[in-house]
UniProtKB/TrEMBL annotation:
<keyword id="KW-0678">Repressor</keyword>
<dbReference type="Pfam" id="PF13977">
    <property type="entry name" value="TetR_C_6"/>
</dbReference>
<keyword id="KW-0804">Transcription</keyword>
<dbReference type="InterPro" id="IPR001647">
    <property type="entry name" value="HTH_TetR"/>
</dbReference>
<keyword id="KW-0805">Transcription regulation</keyword>
<feature type="region of interest" description="Disordered">
    <location>
        <begin position="1"/>
        <end position="50"/>
    </location>
</feature>
<feature type="domain" description="HTH tetR-type">
    <location>
        <begin position="50"/>
        <end position="110"/>
    </location>
</feature>
<dbReference type="GO" id="GO:0003677">
    <property type="term" value="F:DNA binding"/>
</dbReference>
<keyword id="KW-0238">DNA-binding</keyword>
<dbReference type="InterPro" id="IPR039538">
    <property type="entry name" value="BetI_C"/>
</dbReference>
<dbReference type="InterPro" id="IPR009057">
    <property type="entry name" value="Homeodomain-like_sf"/>
</dbReference>
<dbReference type="InterPro" id="IPR036271">
    <property type="entry name" value="Tet_transcr_reg_TetR-rel_C_sf"/>
</dbReference>
<dbReference type="Pfam" id="PF00440">
    <property type="entry name" value="TetR_N"/>
</dbReference>
<protein>
    <submittedName>
        <fullName>TetR/AcrR family transcriptional regulator</fullName>
    </submittedName>
</protein>
<feature type="DNA-binding region" description="H-T-H motif">
    <location>
        <begin position="73"/>
        <end position="92"/>
    </location>
</feature>
Length: 238
């Protein structure tokens, strides 16, 4: 079956790629903004508070990406933003709240990228994944932070343990649902199990990102994922 012969997602009943953010709290849209955004006409306490939260999240991502959650200190974050501890905790009551806000914002951004690559045909679904992988390649600090925190989260009482457990289950289940429908529509190669492919693809994506963080000159995440998709899918245009 060629790309042009694939039925549209709605007609085929193919679900979209699973969302990454889940039930996320409302956090500022700041991670990709410049350090000194242009001024706007909005004035007053809200603007100042929002700008402060934006700055805290940007710096927190940098600190956590370098030191991890346990070693990353609120003192360093506050000093770099120009706030004392009490002022910092006014915006984010606990260190865990701050970290969770950073991670949910990362997921929200990823969901936007996936949505912007919303497929018109079932054959476009793999390309949505590659679009997100290409975006991630432009944000190495964010990926380093995610990989580090994912590893740390398996330790007892880690504040993101529940977040990573729930996220992993949700994304893996979504991938399996998507691949099961692709299998039913004859899009997967003979002998490919949707369940096994979902788990292995998710594990590959997480693992190859870590390898890329360690050795970016030798590891190409997008090419690796594309190669795996070529192995499990029949004809599709990458």
């Amino acid at each position: 079956m060629t790309a042009g012969e694939h039925p549209a997602p709605e007609a085929a009943g193919i679900p979209p790629f699973p969302t990454l953010g889940g039930e996320a709290p409302d956090v500022p849209d700041v991670l990709d903004e410049p350090a000194n955004p242009p001024t706007t006409r909005r004035r007053g306490p809200y603007k100042k508070t929002q700008a402060t939260r934006d700055a805290i999240l940007r710096v927190a991502m940098e600190v956590f990406a370098v030191h991890g959650y346990n070693a990353g200190s609120l003192r360093e974050i506050g000093e770099r933003v120009g706030l004392d501890r009490s002022s910092l905790l006014h915006h984010f009551p606990t260190k865990s709240d701050l970290l969770l806000a950073v991670m949910h914002e990362r997921d929200r951004r990823a969901d936007e990228i996936l949505a912007s690559a919303h497929p018109d045909t079932a054959d476009d679904l793999p390309r949505a994944i590659l679009a997100l992988a290409e975006h991630n390649a432009d944000t190495p600090g964010v990926i380093a932070l995610y990989s580090l925190l994912a590893a740390e989260s398996v330790t007892p009482d880690h504040p993101l343990g529940e977040y990573f457990t729930e996220r992993t289950r949700r994304v893996r289940a979504g991938l399996e649902t998507w691949l099961a429908q692709a299998e039913a529509d004859g899009m997967l190669r003979d002998g490919v199990s949707a369940s096994v492919a979902a788990t292995s693809f998710f594990a590959l994506w997480e693992g190859v990102q870590l390898h890329w963080v360690i050795d970016p000159e030798r590891v190409d995440v997008v090419a690796t994922l594309r190669g795996y998709l070529d192995l499990i899918f029949r004809d599709w245009t990458s």
